[in-house]
Amino acid sequence: MESINAKYVSQKISKTRWRPVSYSSLQQPDIFATGSWDNEDNKISFWSIENHGVSGIEDGFEGDPQLLCEHKHDGDVLDLQFLDQDRIVTASSTGAVTIFRHHQNSQTVSVSQHWARAHRYPCDNAPCTGVVCSSPEIVTVGEDGKIIVFRADQEGVVRVIENADSSTIHAATYLRTTEILTVNSIGQLKLWDFRQQSNTPSQILSLSGDRVPLHCVDRHPNQQHIVATGGQDGMLCVWDVRQGNSPFSLMEAHSAEMWEVHFHPTNPDHLFTCSEDGSLLHWETSSHSDMPSFLQGGRNNSMLSRSAMAPAGGNQSLISAWLSGDSSKGRLETTHMLPSQTLSVNSLDVLGQCLVCGTDGEAIFVNRQVPV
User: Fold this and answer.
1) CA pair distance 134, 305, nearest whole angstrom
2) What is the DSSP string of 19-55?
3) How many CA atoms lie within 13 A of 262 on its CB side?
4) pLDDT score, position 306
5) Which of 31, 35, 139, 197 is most exposed, with the fewest beta carbons within 10 Å of its own?
6) Contact call for residues 115 and 98 (beta carbons, < 8 A)
7) How much is the pTM?
8) pLDDT-based confidence at residue 243 (cuts at 50, 70, 90)
9) Residue 238 has what DSSP assignment?
10) What φ, ψ does residue 294 adopt, rounded to 5°?
11) How many helices (H) and strands (E) does the chain have?
């Protein structure tokens, strides 16, 4: 645990995201953003882990994240995604969707677009629960069961799927540039093809039996048909959306709700999960193929970030190790990434060798030597 820095920030952290780095530079990320929840005044904040030749400030030791700037945020920050290197999109418990711009020269933050009450019930606000970006497109989901499409360069709303779900949609991920996958509070995954004008999903997958709420979803960066989900029961599920309507593998992960799951964006044999139970797990699958994972198709887009789109294609014929993920066969190793603690780990993000997470214990943890 020596390589972990803990920063106590006097606010419960709901979301943490690395700022994208340019793919060509192969540099490690150095700036991340956080959002808070359940505080009197919530904020979005930008932090640096670079040592800008500053010494002895606020008893910070080397490697401690330093606050660059922050901005008040109305409502809890329920999701946070970078649109590009300067702009970040937030989903609010008030139903609002906001684009903030980080001015790196002056280290200030300003609001560049704001859609108040984008998600709403007839007579009340409905929390906006998730946002995904493929610049300039922004897609949000909410407790009201709506899917809304925005463009960062337009003031109006591009498209609304009014009754996408009769239950709460908790999260979404892009499968391809025109397709998203949503997860809801009754254990369903729904695939939406934006090329269709229809307001019905093109496919529905679900866990048989118990309708366990699903809280998070992430897509394998090279193989768009593979997704991982986590939910209220703490189980990690891996799905192949081309095959059948139920998960390919189920793994016991956490003893309480799983809040986020993320494949490593450039080395997807590694996956990370965090939970209400206070733990953050690093999952590693030993691939059966002798071909190194970097040859198995991948991203060749110019920016790397959690929300960036992978090019279609890649070598789809290779069976992903995740689809035979079975911990009993010893193909899957899990490692606890945090010192033991009791309060919820709400969010994580991983880029390069850097991992950041935020907790209800009002702490941000940064690890810059993740073994991937």
Assistant:
1) 10
2) PPEEGGGTPPP-EEEEEE-SSSSEEEEEEE-S--S--
3) 24
4) 40
5) 197
6) yes
7) 0.88
8) confident
9) E
10) -70, -10
11) 0, 32
